[in-house]
Amino acid sequence: MEMTFRWYGSQEEKITLEEIRQIPAMKGIVGTLMDIPVGEVWPKERIKSLKEEIEAAGLTLKVIESVNVHDAIKIGLPSRDRYIANYQQTIRNLAAFGIEVICYNFMPVFDWVKSDLDYRLSDGSSTLAYIAADIPEDPEEIIKKVENSSNDFELPGWEPERLAQVKELLQAYKEVDEAKLRENFAYFLKAIIPTCEEVGIKMAVHPDDPPYSIFGLPRIVKNREDLDWICQVVDSPANGITLCTGSIAEDPANNVYEIMAEFCQRDRIPFAHVRNIKFIQEKDFYEAPHKSEYGSLDMYRILKAMYDNGFNGYIRPDHGRMIWGETGRPGYGLYDRALGAVYLNGLWEALEKENQK
Ligand SMILES: [Mn+2]
């Protein structure tokens, strides 16, 4: 297990690499090149300088989150082959600089959806929440809402240029049901996984967030059956999952502990996002502090499922609250994610020592 921290790059962040390096036992950065438009090749020189900057700060760069998949691929447009060729080239370019894992998702239009990016907890901290009644019916309203509460940070997967055409995008997805989206996903995986095998990279698909349909859009990475289908459609260790405990558990029908255990055992989880959520009622929830007692998930059980089933990939504390007066990119402050990382490392140390007896 190796602890990592998502960082958006010096142009996009007020959090410095030095601050991240000072988190005890923090080893690596989960990096990105946010300014490269979706579908374009990531240039080698940009990857090289990102890696050098991170390594100069005493951290490693082994995981990229995300290389986003162009809508033409998800919709299955004739132009998809060009975007797939670009994706293959990006995989090769990343591998040339020692990247081992690429996190991505296959969600139509919206990368993730929350109703509230500044949900106040009783201790005064601020977090992300999903309250179904507060999700507007009109998708354009949710875009405005997210833009207005993003503290002027660009949020991952919410590229303003792309979402400016949301009406056209939604129209383009009209003919894409779950079966069609699955067919397009299989087409994509069959094209890129051989490239990954050739250069030694693992793809790791992030579950849908939330893991059920919203705005009438299809969802195909939402439960155990979907993950099983993905692993089988191209049966290769290079075709893996970013198991995000928060996202998977957002559907109470999903047993996050069993899913974690099964896919760790099948060696398909090269990367894990670990966070806690607290259900308010039915499927409504907010993102809770990591420690088990604050949320609806048992974090010890999650890490034990990983440990017992041989997890040896990268892990990050996923999101954190805004605490101690910090302001920044919602979900991605320094302090609470640092606390999460230290807590997860503590649980892991206990599991290791308990099993060394
Ligand atoms: Mn996640």
From TrEMBL:
Its EC number is 4.2.1.8. The keyword Ribosomal protein does not apply. This is Mannonate dehydratase. GO terms for molecular function: ferrous iron binding; manganese ion binding; mannonate dehydratase activity. Belongs to the mannonate dehydratase family. Its cofactor is Fe(2+); Mn(2+). Catalyzes the dehydration of D-mannonate. Keywords: Iron, Lyase, Manganese. InterPro entries: Man_deHydtase, Xyl_isomerase-like_sf. Pathway: Carbohydrate metabolism; pentose and glucuronate interconversion. HAMAP family: UxuA (MF_00106). It catalyses: D-mannonate = 2-dehydro-3-deoxy-D-gluconate + H2O. One of its GO terms (biological process) is D-glucuronate catabolic process.
